[in-house]
Amino acid sequence: CECIFSRFNDLGGDIKGGGKSSDAADKVVEEIKAKGGKAVANYDSVEDGEKLIQTALDAFGRIGKGFINTFACISDLIHRVHLRGSFMVTRAAWNHMKNQKFGRIIMTASAAGIYGNFGQANYSAAKLGLLGLANTLAIEGQKYNIHCNTIAPTAGSRLTETVMPPDLLESLKAEYVAPLVLWLSHDQCQENGGLFEVGAGWIGKLRWERSQGCIVRNKNQGMFPETVRDQWDNICDFTNATKPANINESVATLVEVLSRVEADEGIAPNPTSAMATAASGISPAVGQKLPQSTFSYSHTQCILYALGVGMSTKDDHHLKFLYEGHEDFSCLPTFGVIPSQAAMMDGGLGSVPGLNFDFTRLLHGEQYLELFKPLPTSGTLTSQARIADVLDKGSGAVILLDVHTYSDKELVCYNQYSLFIVGAGGFGGKRTSDKAMDISKRSNLTLIPRFQAALYRLSGDWNPLHIDPSFAAMGGFKSPILHGLCSFGFAARHVLKQYANNDASRFKSIKVRFVKPVLPGQSLQTEMWKEGKRIHIQCKVKESGAVVLSGAYVDLHAAADGSPQVLPEAGGLKSELVFAEIGRRIKDLGAEMVKKVNAVFGWEITKGGNTAAQWTIDLKTGAGALHKGPYSGKTDVTITVSDDDFMEVVQGKLNPQKAFFAGKLKVRGNIMLSQKLEVILKDYAKL
Question: Principal place where this protein is found (predicted)?
């Protein structure tokens, strides 16, 4: 066969384009001739098109037909006007757009560039070149809020008015293209890197589609044209086709191919998307429940989580989340994601029929959390997870996982995980769901310590992506990345501090979209602004300007009197009898007790890890008093203890000091006053 000459036209320069040598071209030509083929070397630049083509004509006597009539123009007027002209104008504006942190660029391509058109090789090449230019500008400009899109309009013009009938020209007037351009130019438009055909009042978005393809070589063996021929139908089979949206998704397939070749799986079609090949098994997965999971914890896990999302004793306001003896000790609201994780971490997803995918391809896309009451600082919670929906995003599949978490039978919080499975799309499913939670200035800057990911994983997310450099490299990261839910926690506590004075009881819900990872050692900047009752959030990496959390918000409850929420009593409390006796004794001997104690004691009696009753013993004013329920005054000391442990202490079966050090009895306020409990519980409250 005759060689395609342009493949072997090689200046032989270095990788930067400098120098000149004939060795490279000569070597390839010799190899072709040794195999019985015909080839000729050419040492001119491709810009010298005439010389290069003449070499082919001299050697083979022919090169083609219609195309040659237009080839000489490619580097001339058409390219200068369409491709180079667009490049030069954009380059002139680029730095101005970067400096003002805003820019919108619309390239005008053509259907001739997208599909090709006979006799328009020069024009088609220039127009498709604009699309490649636009796609790269969209990537490079994103961190500067510069968006670049491409349109391929069909509209009447001076060039078409002599070949189109008047009524068709009227239907294709430019007024039916301009609105798209105006929208893509608007600051509210977040479209970036899109390609749109437009004309006659119709707009359509285009994207690439790729077949599943076929591996055509074995380990440690060559690749041959006969194998390509034999597998051609598989190579061109668009069943379960994927729709790669960027170069990373494109390259991801090659990573899997290399893995399969290394595993010596042999020549095989459709190397990607295990989920897509079993598309019929996906729909039944919707509505399936995962095995129920339980999560038991103490104040230790609450404190560990707070440290994991960056809380520190350097800030006095953080102490209420870090010290179990603090009078307002609370659990951070975003701790609500931790109990729900057990549904996935324990292999629950893998047990659902129809969800057969590679877990190393799972990415966390979005997270929604809503609290129905403040989280208890200890207890046992039960979570029930359910597949709400499965969506086909082309380049991957999205699983919407709903997780409801209960204390006893009472709903405490609700999470929705949006899980993206790379390479699992193309199964013909729907792209959107009405079951997905909707996403609709102030600023806080925090340095993420290098140990933060190592610390956060102690809360239960043991994915080696966040600690093992070699595992991170397999995922395409230069170093281990921070957990998305750790960034989630940072953002939530920034809002809690700025807008709720760190009052965890005011937290209602949070929704975020994970855009890019954060590396430990980078600085996380949380931008916040309030619209009505909703706090909107955007998080960026200060060093690069990259947005890492977007479309995010926190909803807060209105400020109340600050009284802790008390759960309804279930089945009565044994401690009721003790407090009834204490009340009777205060009535009889209150004045004497006031002299001995001179303090106000608050009691929080828990059941199942949640506050079930509140009592206040006022032995400081008058003849003393006993109050049930929220107390409007200030207590000197507040004691939190379970109903069972309270009875053990009262009956002398549990030493109060041992109970305190075992974490069964928690004291907030003036801890020394707890020594006077004996006066209340022993001398006057014996049963």
Answer: other
Nearest alpha-carbon partner for 407 in 570, 571, 646, 613: 570
Rounded Cα distance between 425 and 244, Å, is 10
Helices 484-500 and 299-308: angle between axes, nearest 10 degrees: 90
Closest Cα partner for 555 from 485, 506, 621, 620? Answer: 506
pTM of the complete model:
0.45
Cα within 13 Å of Cα(283), Cβ side: 6
What is the total residue count of the chain?
687
DSSP character at residue 17: S
Q: Are residues 477 and 610 in the same domain?
A: no
Q: Which of 162, 181, 206 is the last residue of a domain?
A: 206
Domain boundary among 150, 175, 206: 206
Is 123 part of the annotated catalytic residue set?
yes
pLDDT for residue 52: 61
Domain containing residue 650: CATH number: 3.30.1050.10
Report the CATH number that the domain containing residue 411 is assigned in CATH.
3.10.129.10
* Full residue range of the structural domain in which residue 295 is found: 288-426+441-556
Rounded distance between C-alpha atoms, residue 227 and residue 664, angstroms: 71
Would strands 103-108 and 547-556 be described as parallel, antiparallel, or unpaired?
A: unpaired
Please give the backbone phi and psi of residue 7, each rounded to the nearest 5 degrees, phi first: -70, -25
Report residue 289 as tokens.
């429940």
Question: Which residues of the chain are under the pLDDT cut of 50?
Answer: 1-12, 15-17, 65-68, 70-71, 73-74, 271-283, 440, 561-571, 683-687
What is the three-class DSSP state of 473? helix
Number of other residues whose CB lies within 10 A of the CB of residue 130: 21
Report d(CA 150, CA 591) in Å as an integer: 85
Under DSSP, is residue 228 helix (H, G, I), strand (E, B) or coil?
helix
- Residue-wise pLDDT for 149-165, tens only, equals 999 998 776 556 665 66
pLDDT tens digits for range 360-388: 778 888 899 999 889 999 999 999 998 88
Show the 3-state SS of 306-368. HHHCCCCCCCHHHHHHHCCCCCCCCCCHHHHHHHHHHHHHCCCHHHCCCCCCCHHHEEEEEEE
Cβ atoms of residues 503 and 524 within 8 Å: no
Distance CA 621, CA 296 (A): 41
| Residues 422, 113: Cα–Cα separation, whole Å | 30
Which listed residue (123, 414, 553, 684) is catalytic?
A: 123
Shared-domain flag, residues 639 and 675: yes
* Segment 555-580, tens digit of pLDDT: 888 876 444 444 444 346 888 888 88
Number of domains in the chain: 4
Count Cβ atoms within 10 A of the Cβ of residue 562 and give its class: 0-12 exposed, 13-18 middle, 19 or more buried.
Answer: exposed
- C-beta neighbour count of 57 within 10 angstroms: 12
Contact 647, 656 (CB under 8 A): no
CATH code, domain carrying 150: 3.40.50.720
Give the C-alpha separation, 104 to 99, whole Å.
Answer: 14
Q: Does 260 reside within a domain? A: no
Residues 593 and 654 reside in one and the same domain: yes
565 found inside a domain: no
How far is the C-alpha of 322 from the C-alpha of 315, rounded, in Å?
11
Q: Which amino acid is at 73?
A: C
